[in-house]
Amino acid sequence: MVLIDAREVNKDYHNGEVMTHVLKNLSLCVSEGDFCGIVGPSGSGKSTLLYVLSGLEPPTSGSVLLTGKDLSHVFETEMADLRQKTIGFVFQFYNLIPNLTVYENLLLPMIIAKDHQPKRIEEALEAVGLIEAMHQYPNQLSGGMQQRVAIARAIINRPKLIFADEPTGNLDQKSGIEVMNLLQKLNHEYKITIILVTHNLEHIHYCTRKIELCDGMIVSDEQRTL
């Protein structure tokens, strides 16, 4: 099943009279079960592509279909529902709410989605190996543990797809390996499709697909056997 179908996508940014073409006539399909690693030099458009594919930013032209829905024709309320129930996000910075416990940080997205099932909090924390940290606050955890909480938050509403933008960029090597192993586990065992933006080529070893960008265009798209 195709989860994302991007067709002839362009993305431009304007700064006064200066226009920068970041994505250039780019087409890409992502199927259920893929673990895509998007790589490329700085400024090649990696993060912009992730934001456009996830609906965080609209393309200047072209179309993006997410689970069959053309994002340019989706009302904001429906887009919010997609973000709450179909896709999850993991960023370089954990964005945990400091005055809430781990449990409360995971409870919040369920409240927003109006799908309050506390048992899922324990399940998500068990998946990331942090059940013992349930009642701790973010500042009581290491950076790697906070990122694992952020991943638990991303899967709390059982999404089909996770977008991860440099999720290890703020971590030491050991914590980064733990996070990559966890993402691979979510892909293999929980069947969550993952789109990962990374500058670290070592991370491609965890991926089933390597997509390389250069100057806003896909220059290679390779299936990998793990």
Describe this structure in words.
- By secondary structure, this protein is an alpha/beta fold.
- The chain has a single domain, classed as P-loop containing nucleotide triphosphate hydrolases (Rossmann fold, 3-Layer(aba) Sandwich), CATH 3.40.50.300.
- The chain is 30% helix and 30% strand.
- It has six helices and ten strands.
- It has a six-stranded mixed β-sheet with strand order 6-7-8-3-9-10, with helices on both faces.
- α4 crosses α5 (143-155) and α5 (143-155) packs parallel to α6.
- The radius of gyration is 17 Å and the shape is globular.
CATH fold type: Rossmann fold
| Biggest sheet descriptor | 6 strands, mixed
CATH architecture: 3-Layer(aba) Sandwich
Q: Order of strands side by side in the largest beta sheet?
A: 6-7-8-3-9-10
How would you name the CATH homologous superfamily?
P-loop containing nucleotide triphosphate hydrolases
N- to C-terminal distance: 21 Å
The helical percent reads 25-40%
Short note summarizing the structure:
With 226 residues, the protein is of the alpha/beta class. It has helices at residues 46-54, 76-85, 102-112, 119-127, 143-155, 173-188; strands at residues 2-15, 18-31, 35-39, 61-66, 69-70, 87-90, 161-165, 193-197, 209-214, 217-223.
Sum up the structure in keywords.
single chain; 226 residues; alpha/beta; Rossmann fold; six-stranded mixed beta sheet; four-stranded antiparallel beta sheet; 6 helices; globular
